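This part of the workshop introduces the protein records we will be handling. To make this concrete, we reproduce a full record directly below.
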Amino acid sequence: MIRHMIAGLACLSLAAPALADDYPPAPPMGSLKPFTLPATETFTLPNGMKVTLIPFGSVPQATISLNVFAGRLDAAGRPWLAELTGDMLKEGAGARTSAQIADAAAAMGGNVSVGTGTINTALNLTVLSEHASDAVALLADLARGPTFPASEFGRAKDNRVRSLSLALSQAQPVADLALGHAYYGDHPYGATYPKADQLGGYTLADVRAFHAANFGAQRAHLYIAGRFDAAAVRAAVTRAFSGWAKGPARLSLPPTPKPGPQFILVDRPGAPQSTIRLAFPGAAIGSTGDFPLRVMDTLLSGSFNSRITRNIRENKGFTYSPGSQAAFHPGETVWQFYADVTSASTGASLHEIFSEIRTLQATPPSVEETAGMATYRATDPIFNGSTAGGLIGTLAQYEALNQPPSYIANYVPKALAVTPEQISAAARATLPLERMTLVVVGDLKTVLPQLKAQPELASANFVTVTLP
């Protein structure tokens, strides 16, 4: 019996491929439609706090996100003090302990998360729709009245110390640290990691002082997206936040990047691979070069089907996953390339990367390749805006970059309008190889001769640095 069953299954498996021929061809892909933001209601409390309500979706949930412009930028050369402050917001607030905060969020069907970045701290909570007003009150407690219990501070700081130790034991964070110092100098954009003794010296008084100096209504924007009772939520927002002190205005601190040529090396004797970083100044967000830069990045190395990825991953096997991005900041843009390549192929990888850049600078891509990459890039707001949290993140991101909602609404047609000639022009404007900032972390005994053999690097002034 079993033998007959196995034989039957074998026949089915042999017949399966033939069935594929019976499927009709896939329908042609339609044109990409413009992304339309959902209808929103935005108002400002008398203390300066902004509030945006976004009816969205059909799932009975509401996502509440409080975005406060208080991050590493505001920490005055003290990296991770803002992050440590964010960690402590959940450890006690109002009359609640950390356990009670977690229990209250769980009773609403969610959990609180706090994320701190370069320019902001975001407090997030997704709950069942009927608890939206209570969730607003809970986030208000965390932002306005954290108690910063001493009993929790040691554990929070120890977690950060362990994270720092782990990060600096890996080549990628070390490369990011070296690049940040070389490109941004002492500006907070370049101070991505603290020194161990610096982090160890932060006190609870430092955390309290950072919160007092940087958290306030004037720097805050509360987003609520999903299904909720708008009138009840508006009333809850007024009750919870109208008494919050106005606080300081958002800090503006544009960097003065140091463009290349710069060639920074970090030795990791015996390392089986090299970590590569490249950086160049890019077009400002909202400028005429914005979308050509975005699509150029996508075509060159910013997508899985990009030219450099196909070259040094698929064809040469030098790396697993290279990539790049145009990182937009308020008042500044940097294009960054990153890859981990085998030590023996470090020079060859850079040769191919430089060759792809020069080719794109000299020869516009085909109309078909341009259309594919422009379509890929144009889907950003569509995919990001498909969930309540993603939609809030998109709105908050472009507010942080001082762009109006119309920027998002025009994103799709502007990306699709990029031409082959604009892509080549963006490559020429953004990536002049004689102005590169290059960081290589690896076994210099193996790598340095390969670097010096590249024509673009033959006369380079290589600087070897030692990082903590």
About this structure: Residues 1-19 have pLDDT under 50 and may be disordered. The first helix runs from residue 2 to 20. The chain has 19 helices and 14 strands. The first strand starts at residue 41 and ends at 44.
